[in-house]
Design goal:
The protein contains twelve helices and six strands. The protein is mainly alpha-helical. A three-stranded antiparallel β-sheet has the order 1-3-2. A three-stranded antiparallel β-sheet has the order 4-5-6, with no helix packed on it.
Length: 386
Protein backbone atom coordinates (compact mmCIF):
# COMPACT_ATOMS: atom_id res chain seq x y z
CA UNK A 1 0.00 0.00 0.00
CA UNK A 2 1.47 3.27 -1.02
CA UNK A 3 1.84 6.06 1.60
CA UNK A 4 -0.33 9.05 1.12
CA UNK A 5 1.64 12.28 0.84
CA UNK A 6 1.05 14.57 3.91
CA UNK A 7 0.59 18.29 3.80
CA UNK A 8 3.41 20.16 5.55
CA UNK A 9 2.31 22.05 8.72
CA UNK A 10 1.60 25.73 8.21
CA UNK A 11 4.41 28.04 9.20
CA UNK A 12 3.64 30.51 11.98
CA UNK A 13 4.10 34.14 11.10
CA UNK A 14 6.93 35.86 13.00
CA UNK A 15 5.92 38.09 15.91
CA UNK A 16 8.09 40.87 14.53
CA UNK A 17 7.44 41.61 10.85
CA UNK A 18 10.61 41.79 8.82
CA UNK A 19 12.58 39.48 11.17
CA UNK A 20 13.48 36.00 9.94
CA UNK A 21 12.61 33.03 12.20
CA UNK A 22 15.43 31.41 14.18
CA UNK A 23 16.97 28.30 12.69
CA UNK A 24 16.60 25.04 14.66
CA UNK A 25 19.51 23.89 16.86
CA UNK A 26 21.94 21.42 15.43
CA UNK A 27 22.75 18.17 17.31
CA UNK A 28 26.20 19.54 18.17
CA UNK A 29 24.69 22.66 19.82
CA UNK A 30 22.23 20.56 21.82
CA UNK A 31 25.11 18.37 23.09
CA UNK A 32 27.17 21.40 24.21
CA UNK A 33 24.20 22.92 26.06
CA UNK A 34 23.63 19.69 27.99
CA UNK A 35 27.31 19.36 28.92
CA UNK A 36 27.41 22.95 30.24
CA UNK A 37 24.26 22.38 32.27
CA UNK A 38 25.71 19.29 33.95
CA UNK A 39 28.98 21.13 34.74
CA UNK A 40 27.08 23.99 36.37
CA UNK A 41 25.08 21.59 38.53
CA UNK A 42 28.24 19.84 39.63
CA UNK A 43 29.90 23.12 40.63
CA UNK A 44 26.79 24.20 42.54
CA UNK A 45 26.66 20.95 44.53
CA UNK A 46 30.39 21.25 45.29
CA UNK A 47 29.93 24.78 46.72
CA UNK A 48 26.93 23.69 48.81
CA UNK A 49 28.84 20.82 50.35
CA UNK A 50 31.83 23.06 51.17
CA UNK A 51 29.54 25.61 52.82
CA UNK A 52 27.94 22.92 55.00
CA UNK A 53 31.33 21.63 56.13
CA UNK A 54 32.53 25.13 57.18
CA UNK A 55 29.52 26.05 59.37
CA UNK A 56 29.49 25.92 63.19
CA UNK A 57 26.61 23.46 63.33
CA UNK A 58 26.58 20.66 65.96
CA UNK A 59 28.80 17.62 65.46
CA UNK A 60 25.90 15.35 64.63
CA UNK A 61 24.85 17.68 61.82
CA UNK A 62 28.42 17.82 60.52
CA UNK A 63 28.60 14.03 60.41
CA UNK A 64 25.36 13.75 58.51
CA UNK A 65 26.34 16.43 56.05
CA UNK A 66 29.92 15.20 55.58
CA UNK A 67 28.65 12.02 53.99
CA UNK A 68 26.86 14.02 51.28
CA UNK A 69 29.80 15.24 49.24
CA UNK A 70 30.04 15.82 45.59
CA UNK A 71 31.83 12.48 45.23
CA UNK A 72 28.77 10.57 46.48
CA UNK A 73 26.30 12.50 44.29
CA UNK A 74 26.25 11.96 40.58
CA UNK A 75 25.40 14.68 38.12
CA UNK A 76 21.68 15.37 38.15
CA UNK A 77 21.04 13.42 41.39
CA UNK A 78 19.03 15.23 44.09
CA UNK A 79 20.11 15.44 47.70
CA UNK A 80 18.00 13.62 50.32
CA UNK A 81 15.49 15.61 52.37
CA UNK A 82 17.29 14.89 55.64
CA UNK A 83 20.48 16.55 54.41
CA UNK A 84 18.68 19.79 53.42
CA UNK A 85 16.66 20.18 56.64
CA UNK A 86 19.32 19.15 59.15
CA UNK A 87 21.85 21.86 58.33
CA UNK A 88 21.37 25.42 59.60
CA UNK A 89 22.67 28.29 57.50
CA UNK A 90 24.94 30.54 59.59
CA UNK A 91 24.58 34.31 59.29
CA UNK A 92 25.87 37.28 61.22
CA UNK A 93 22.49 37.81 62.89
CA UNK A 94 21.95 34.16 63.93
CA UNK A 95 21.54 34.22 67.72
CA UNK A 96 21.48 30.42 68.06
CA UNK A 97 25.22 30.05 67.52
CA UNK A 98 25.93 32.01 70.72
CA UNK A 99 26.91 29.77 73.60
CA UNK A 100 25.66 30.45 77.17
CA UNK A 101 29.24 31.04 78.33
CA UNK A 102 29.76 33.87 75.87
CA UNK A 103 28.44 36.46 78.30
CA UNK A 104 28.44 36.55 82.10
CA UNK A 105 24.74 37.38 82.20
CA UNK A 106 23.72 34.13 80.54
CA UNK A 107 22.40 33.19 77.14
CA UNK A 108 20.38 36.06 75.58
CA UNK A 109 19.82 35.54 71.85
CA UNK A 110 18.54 39.07 71.15
CA UNK A 111 21.80 40.64 72.36
CA UNK A 112 23.58 39.43 69.23
CA UNK A 113 21.18 41.24 66.88
CA UNK A 114 22.74 44.56 65.85
CA UNK A 115 20.64 47.54 64.69
CA UNK A 116 20.97 49.01 61.26
CA UNK A 117 23.57 51.70 60.69
CA UNK A 118 20.99 54.50 60.30
CA UNK A 119 19.40 53.68 63.68
CA UNK A 120 22.50 53.38 65.88
CA UNK A 121 22.31 57.02 67.10
CA UNK A 122 19.01 57.62 68.83
CA UNK A 123 17.73 58.73 72.22
CA UNK A 124 15.07 56.72 73.99
CA UNK A 125 12.51 58.83 75.88
CA UNK A 126 10.03 57.69 78.48
CA UNK A 127 6.92 59.63 77.48
CA UNK A 128 5.05 58.55 80.62
CA UNK A 129 7.43 60.64 82.78
CA UNK A 130 7.64 63.71 80.52
CA UNK A 131 5.89 67.04 80.95
CA UNK A 132 3.19 67.87 78.41
CA UNK A 133 4.06 71.44 77.35
CA UNK A 134 1.08 71.64 74.94
CA UNK A 135 3.47 73.17 72.41
CA UNK A 136 5.22 70.22 70.79
CA UNK A 137 8.64 70.81 72.38
CA UNK A 138 10.67 69.29 75.22
CA UNK A 139 11.76 71.06 78.38
CA UNK A 140 15.32 71.14 79.62
CA UNK A 141 14.52 68.66 82.40
CA UNK A 142 12.93 66.15 80.03
CA UNK A 143 15.64 66.44 77.35
CA UNK A 144 19.03 66.06 79.08
CA UNK A 145 20.74 65.03 75.82
CA UNK A 146 20.00 68.31 74.00
CA UNK A 147 23.10 70.51 74.14
CA UNK A 148 21.27 73.58 72.87
CA UNK A 149 18.88 73.59 75.84
CA UNK A 150 21.65 73.11 78.40
CA UNK A 151 24.12 75.57 76.86
CA UNK A 152 24.96 78.47 79.16
CA UNK A 153 24.13 81.98 78.00
CA UNK A 154 26.75 84.71 77.89
CA UNK A 155 25.39 86.61 80.93
CA UNK A 156 24.09 83.63 82.90
CA UNK A 157 25.80 82.48 86.08
CA UNK A 158 27.03 78.86 85.96
CA UNK A 159 25.59 76.52 88.55
CA UNK A 160 28.97 75.66 90.12
CA UNK A 161 29.86 79.35 90.80
CA UNK A 162 28.83 81.41 93.77
CA UNK A 163 27.56 84.95 93.31
CA UNK A 164 30.84 86.41 94.58
CA UNK A 165 32.89 84.32 92.15
CA UNK A 166 30.56 85.26 89.29
CA UNK A 167 30.91 89.00 90.03
CA UNK A 168 34.69 88.65 90.12
CA UNK A 169 34.62 86.77 86.82
CA UNK A 170 32.54 89.51 85.18
CA UNK A 171 34.88 92.22 86.50
CA UNK A 172 37.94 90.44 85.13
CA UNK A 173 36.26 89.96 81.78
CA UNK A 174 35.40 93.67 81.47
CA UNK A 175 38.95 94.66 82.48
CA UNK A 176 40.36 92.25 79.93
CA UNK A 177 38.21 93.74 77.18
CA UNK A 178 39.17 97.32 78.15
CA UNK A 179 42.83 96.44 78.76
CA UNK A 180 42.71 98.09 82.14
CA UNK A 181 43.92 97.17 85.62
CA UNK A 182 46.08 94.03 85.64
CA UNK A 183 45.57 93.57 81.89
CA UNK A 184 47.05 96.96 80.96
CA UNK A 185 50.27 96.61 78.91
CA UNK A 186 53.39 97.29 80.93
CA UNK A 187 55.54 100.39 80.54
CA UNK A 188 59.32 100.23 80.12
CA UNK A 189 61.57 102.18 82.48
CA UNK A 190 64.30 102.54 79.89
CA UNK A 191 65.25 105.86 78.37
CA UNK A 192 63.40 107.32 75.41
CA UNK A 193 66.12 106.18 72.99
CA UNK A 194 66.03 102.57 74.20
CA UNK A 195 62.28 102.30 74.74
CA UNK A 196 61.19 102.93 71.17
CA UNK A 197 58.32 100.51 71.50
CA UNK A 198 56.50 102.66 74.06
CA UNK A 199 53.57 104.56 72.56
CA UNK A 200 52.84 108.09 73.74
CA UNK A 201 49.88 110.40 73.65
CA UNK A 202 49.73 112.35 70.40
CA UNK A 203 48.83 115.56 72.27
CA UNK A 204 50.82 115.69 75.52
CA UNK A 205 53.34 112.84 75.11
CA UNK A 206 52.12 110.91 78.16
CA UNK A 207 52.65 107.15 78.38
CA UNK A 208 49.29 106.59 80.09
CA UNK A 209 47.25 106.19 76.92
CA UNK A 210 43.94 104.45 76.33
CA UNK A 211 45.04 101.04 75.09
CA UNK A 212 41.61 100.07 73.83
CA UNK A 213 41.49 103.14 71.56
CA UNK A 214 45.03 102.42 70.43
CA UNK A 215 44.14 98.84 69.47
CA UNK A 216 40.70 99.40 67.88
CA UNK A 217 40.80 103.03 66.64
CA UNK A 218 44.59 103.15 66.14
CA UNK A 219 44.74 106.43 68.07
CA UNK A 220 47.27 106.97 70.89
CA UNK A 221 45.70 109.47 73.27
CA UNK A 222 45.34 109.70 77.03
CA UNK A 223 42.09 110.12 78.93
CA UNK A 224 42.93 113.69 79.98
CA UNK A 225 43.40 114.82 76.37
CA UNK A 226 40.14 113.18 75.36
CA UNK A 227 38.32 115.39 77.84
CA UNK A 228 40.41 118.46 76.97
CA UNK A 229 39.84 118.31 73.18
CA UNK A 230 36.28 117.15 72.56
CA UNK A 231 36.23 118.71 69.08
CA UNK A 232 38.81 116.12 67.96
CA UNK A 233 38.24 113.03 70.11
CA UNK A 234 34.48 112.94 70.50
CA UNK A 235 32.68 109.91 69.07
CA UNK A 236 30.20 110.15 66.21
CA UNK A 237 27.45 107.67 65.46
CA UNK A 238 27.06 106.09 62.06
CA UNK A 239 23.99 108.21 61.29
CA UNK A 240 25.80 111.45 62.15
CA UNK A 241 28.81 110.54 59.98
CA UNK A 242 26.53 109.67 57.06
CA UNK A 243 24.29 112.75 57.26
CA UNK A 244 26.77 115.43 58.38
CA UNK A 245 29.80 114.39 56.32
CA UNK A 246 27.91 112.72 53.42
CA UNK A 247 29.78 109.42 53.69
CA UNK A 248 28.49 106.27 52.01
CA UNK A 249 27.65 102.93 53.60
CA UNK A 250 30.64 101.02 52.13
CA UNK A 251 33.03 103.70 53.41
CA UNK A 252 31.61 103.49 56.92
CA UNK A 253 31.84 99.69 56.95
CA UNK A 254 35.48 99.67 55.84
CA UNK A 255 37.44 99.13 59.07
CA UNK A 256 40.77 99.88 57.36
CA UNK A 257 39.52 103.24 56.12
CA UNK A 258 37.49 104.32 59.16
CA UNK A 259 38.01 102.20 62.30
CA UNK A 260 35.10 102.18 64.70
CA UNK A 261 34.00 100.95 68.11
CA UNK A 262 30.94 98.75 68.58
CA UNK A 263 28.62 99.27 71.54
CA UNK A 264 25.21 97.78 72.40
CA UNK A 265 22.33 99.73 70.92
CA UNK A 266 20.91 102.06 73.64
CA UNK A 267 17.46 102.15 72.03
CA UNK A 268 16.87 98.39 71.93
CA UNK A 269 19.19 95.57 72.92
CA UNK A 270 18.01 93.27 70.11
CA UNK A 271 18.94 95.78 67.38
CA UNK A 272 22.34 95.89 65.68
CA UNK A 273 25.29 97.22 67.63
CA UNK A 274 25.96 100.96 67.54
CA UNK A 275 29.06 101.93 65.52
CA UNK A 276 31.08 104.88 66.89
CA UNK A 277 33.68 106.79 64.88
CA UNK A 278 36.39 109.20 65.98
CA UNK A 279 35.59 112.74 64.88
CA UNK A 280 39.04 113.81 63.70
CA UNK A 281 39.43 110.61 61.61
CA UNK A 282 36.07 111.19 59.91
CA UNK A 283 36.92 114.85 59.21
CA UNK A 284 40.39 114.01 57.86
CA UNK A 285 38.91 111.59 55.33
CA UNK A 286 35.89 113.78 54.45
CA UNK A 287 38.02 116.93 53.91
CA UNK A 288 40.76 115.11 51.99
CA UNK A 289 41.13 115.04 48.21
CA UNK A 290 39.88 111.46 48.16
CA UNK A 291 36.41 112.59 49.16
CA UNK A 292 35.28 116.27 49.06
CA UNK A 293 38.52 118.23 49.15
CA UNK A 294 37.63 120.68 51.93
CA UNK A 295 34.86 122.05 54.11
CA UNK A 296 33.66 124.54 51.48
CA UNK A 297 33.07 121.82 48.91
CA UNK A 298 31.30 119.72 51.52
CA UNK A 299 28.96 122.64 52.28
CA UNK A 300 28.30 123.13 48.58
CA UNK A 301 27.47 119.45 48.13
CA UNK A 302 25.20 119.56 51.17
CA UNK A 303 23.32 122.59 49.82
CA UNK A 304 23.03 120.99 46.39
CA UNK A 305 21.51 117.84 47.86
CA UNK A 306 19.11 119.78 50.03
CA UNK A 307 18.00 121.83 47.03
CA UNK A 308 17.53 118.63 45.01
CA UNK A 309 15.38 117.18 47.79
CA UNK A 310 13.28 120.34 47.89
CA UNK A 311 12.81 120.37 44.11
CA UNK A 312 11.78 116.73 44.09
CA UNK A 313 9.29 117.35 46.88
CA UNK A 314 7.81 120.37 45.10
CA UNK A 315 7.64 118.47 41.82
CA UNK A 316 5.79 115.63 43.44
CA UNK A 317 3.35 118.10 45.01
CA UNK A 318 2.75 119.84 41.66
CA UNK A 319 2.17 116.50 39.95
CA UNK A 320 -0.46 115.53 42.51
CA UNK A 321 -2.10 118.96 42.26
CA UNK A 322 -2.20 118.73 38.47
CA UNK A 323 -3.77 115.30 38.67
CA UNK A 324 -6.40 116.62 41.06
CA UNK A 325 -7.16 119.53 38.68
CA UNK A 326 -7.55 117.14 35.77
CA UNK A 327 -10.01 115.01 37.71
CA UNK A 328 -11.97 118.14 38.70
CA UNK A 329 -12.12 119.42 35.10
CA UNK A 330 -13.27 116.06 33.80
CA UNK A 331 -16.02 115.90 36.41
CA UNK A 332 -17.15 119.47 35.60
CA UNK A 333 -17.11 118.66 31.88
CA UNK A 334 -19.27 115.59 32.44
CA UNK A 335 -21.77 117.55 34.49
CA UNK A 336 -21.91 120.25 31.80
CA UNK A 337 -22.61 117.65 29.13
CA UNK A 338 -25.49 116.28 31.20
CA UNK A 339 -26.94 119.79 31.66
CA UNK A 340 -26.74 119.88 35.45
CA UNK A 341 -23.75 122.17 35.78
CA UNK A 342 -25.64 125.06 37.51
CA UNK A 343 -28.11 125.34 40.32
CA UNK A 344 -28.29 126.35 43.93
CA UNK A 345 -27.91 124.49 47.18
CA UNK A 346 -30.54 121.84 47.60
CA UNK A 347 -31.15 121.37 43.87
CA UNK A 348 -31.33 117.83 42.57
CA UNK A 349 -28.12 116.85 40.77
CA UNK A 350 -27.96 114.40 37.87
CA UNK A 351 -31.64 114.20 36.99
CA UNK A 352 -31.93 117.27 34.74
CA UNK A 353 -34.32 119.28 36.93
CA UNK A 354 -34.60 121.36 40.07
CA UNK A 355 -35.46 119.82 43.37
CA UNK A 356 -38.75 120.76 44.96
CA UNK A 357 -38.75 120.50 48.72
CA UNK A 358 -41.50 118.62 50.46
CA UNK A 359 -41.58 120.05 53.97
CA UNK A 360 -42.86 118.04 56.85
CA UNK A 361 -44.65 119.22 59.96
CA UNK A 362 -42.73 121.82 61.99
CA UNK A 363 -41.25 120.64 65.24
CA UNK A 364 -40.88 123.13 68.06
CA UNK A 365 -37.62 122.95 69.96
CA UNK A 366 -36.75 123.87 73.56
CA UNK A 367 -36.02 127.49 72.63
CA UNK A 368 -39.46 127.89 71.04
CA UNK A 369 -38.19 127.91 67.43
CA UNK A 370 -39.89 125.54 65.01
CA UNK A 371 -37.86 123.43 62.59
CA UNK A 372 -39.10 121.97 59.32
CA UNK A 373 -37.32 119.11 57.50
CA UNK A 374 -37.56 118.16 53.83
CA UNK A 375 -38.80 114.62 53.47
CA UNK A 376 -36.70 113.85 50.36
CA UNK A 377 -33.34 115.63 50.82
CA UNK A 378 -33.34 116.09 54.62
CA UNK A 379 -32.76 119.85 54.52
CA UNK A 380 -33.79 121.67 57.72
CA UNK A 381 -35.02 125.25 58.03
CA UNK A 382 -36.08 127.23 61.10
CA UNK A 383 -39.48 128.86 61.18
CA UNK A 384 -40.50 131.77 63.35
CA UNK A 385 -44.16 132.65 63.93
CA UNK A 386 -45.12 136.27 64.81
Amino acid sequence: MTERPSTPPPQTAPSNPGVLPRAPLTPEQVKNIEINRLKAKALRSQRDSDARNNTDAPTSLKRSSSNLTSNNLAAGQKRPYSSTTAGVTSTLRDARITTPAAKPGGFRPLDEIQPARNFTKFVEYDFSKMTDTKGGFLTAEDDPHNRALHALKADEKPAHMTMKEWERHQLLRSLREQKAGPFEPGLSVLSAGEARGNKKCRECGSLEIDWMWEEVLRCSVCNACKELFPDRYSLLTKTEAREDYLLTEPELKDAELLPHLERPNPHKSTWNNMMLYLRYQVEEYAFSEKKWGGGERLDEEFERREGEKKRKKEGKFRAKLQELKKKTRVEAYRRGRRGDGGGEFGDEVGRGGKHTHVWGRPVEGDDGVGTKTCVECGMEVEELEF
